[in-house]
Please model this.
Amino acid sequence: MDAVYTHGHHESVLRSHRWRTAENSAAYLVPHLKPHMKILDVGSGPGTITADLAALVPDGRLTASEVTADALELAKAEVAARGLTNVDFAVADVHALDHPDETFCVVHAHQVLQHVGDPVRALREMRRVTRPGGFVAVRDSDYAAFTWWPRVPALDEWMALYQRVARGNGGEPDAGRRLLSWARQAGFEDVTATSSTWTFADPEDRAWWGGMWAERIVSSAMAEQAVATGAATEADLRRMSEGWLEWAAAGDGWLSVLHGEILCRVTT
Model:
């Protein structure tokens, strides 16, 4: 079940993750939240979605979890900066959550199952700690479904490299399309499966997304992993970085990131 986190915590990665909000990354879940609910946020990352969700349950509580204490410090800083007082923190492995059965009204995970060794077991654990009538809510991107224009050969290389590195780390980069299947295997019967996208098409968005990946592909943990395993050379990574900048500078540049979503109601 062991898997290596492909992205790591370089500032270029955190810059991307801090852009995420409940509005742009958990809209499928938000209408189902009630002020009194108790939520577990699995893989809270830098805590922007975490804090948004906590603010939506002012009479409830949210527990933010991460796999290491160092990673959890990022969410703690975001929560403190917003002055929220209804958030707890826990170091946890989603394959073996340290919570009693039927503890939470909602268990939420954003961009987590693509990085774990056994997503079906993870979903079973998330189900175990959810109360009857509650929800397990999961959203994951699907890398093979990313699409962009104009065609830039270096971005095709980037996609092939990402797929190779992520799978070598024990993850599944095309998780989005598999979420419904994994939920069925985990025993869920009441599942609403949807999808949504992030789109980057205006000059500001292209500069942000393209510039972020131009830095990530040469500076993040993925870059280190790619070179260490022989999947790419530093020259390859520089070429991919330049490709991202080429795409960002294109006046007709457009990119869409597809995400699969599942909202699983726990019935028993």
Notes: The mean pLDDT is 96. The chain has ten helices and eight strands. The longest strand covers residues 130-141.
